[in-house]
Amino acid sequence: xxxNISLYSKSSPDSKCFILTHSNNIFNNSxxxxxxxxxxxxxxxxxxxxxxxxxxxPIKEQKNENNTVKSNTTPETQERINELLKLFPPIKYGFAxxxxxxxxxxxxxxxxxTTSTEDPSKKESPMIxxxxxxxxxxxxxxxxxxxxxxxxxxxxxxxxxxxxxVQFMSAKIYFNTLxxxxxxxxxxxxxxxxxxxxxLKNWRTLYLSGRMQxxxxxxxxxxxxxxxxxxxxxxxxxxxxxxxxSLLMLPETFTEYDLYHTISKLxxxxxxxxxxxxxxxxxxxxxxxNIYGFRSLYFPIIYDHLTQYLNxxxxxxxxxxxxxILSKYLNHNNNNKNKNKDEExxxxxxxxxxxxxxxxxxxxxxxxxxxxxxKEVRNNMKLKKPDEKIxxxxxxxxxxxxxxxxxxxxxxKGVLTAGISKSFNYMKLxxxxxxx
Length: 436
Known about the structure:
Elements lengths: L1 H9 L19 H4 L4 H16 L7 E4 L2 E4 L4 H11 L7 E5 L9 E3 L5 E3 L10 E7 L2 H12 L11 H8 L5 E9 L2 E9 H10 L14 E2 L5 H26 L3 E3 H11 L15 H7 L2 H16 L3 E4 L5 E3 H13 L13 E4 L3 H9 L3 H16 L9 H27 L1 H15 L2
Parallel strand pairs: 6-8
Antiparallel strand pairs: 1-2, 3-6, 3-9, 4-5, 7-8, 10-13, 11-12, 11-13
């Protein structure tokens, strides 16, 4: 039985899960002239989103049976990811993230499609970061230990049951780090599928939900069911809550860059690694090279759920409804090939936060944040200041406390899961990156 599973875990991903296509379709402008049928508009908007998104990088459209996954990485990096996936037992859902996968300022794309630092004297590729969401952690680790015992610290010799127990501490994820396979540096984290769903919905740790608020690459070995469910939950809860939280923190008028920068900072607020072990410009570096990647995530969310809370300010100072501008802006820039994809001016928004809208936004937040914010609203009402907004610092502090708790305990857990030597080397690597 173990031999059969061992062979299966070394096999290539099912060819049906990885079909590459590319579309250069030009979409009908009737979408922008017909705002009465929102469902139809939404479907066409997603198509436009893909074509717009494809201007940044060579895009692979991975087809996992009935689901289409849009990737945001080079074909060469995707091949490296696929090479790594041959090592592991089946997963229900997974994604790749980080500077080794998604373009970031401070890193160049090499001729072979891989990523390295911009400093030619230090042409080293960053690690590929993988996350595996599995149905049963104990069973998954037992299979993984058969082929990949060397990935684990001393905990691996104690068996899958102990490994899973350690995993369920803190942010409920188990990392094996500083690994290398065929010249590919990587690390991977394992989380139980239900725990990932819980964090996306409820922001209990913001450890992985925070990572999924930024552009990622869905793994082709994800099951059809897992992929579809996670994408739906991430959009319905995590991404929407990220926009709402940022709207409540931002000033009345803000740029598109401000929005994405604020969203990206959420999961780093309170992160112990930001106190020296991470580049302080990390958020800027993530956003500035991925404006269109963030658009592909957040324009549909705003268009479907939040246009009533936002206007767009035109160059002449006029305010117009954001739903119309979002769609027209995408169409205009798809056909304007002369503009630099990452340097052109971004949209300027103006929030419509009258007291009712403000309360509606608060009511949509996760319970762990909403309860405290509503308590502040009630206090204002007692003070006969019902129209006064809550100090954004309170919201920031709530996010800070969630992130700081999970990041601190997860960092301590890393000494067990990686071992003292690897933990020390990993910290040295982070500090070295911080100096760039």
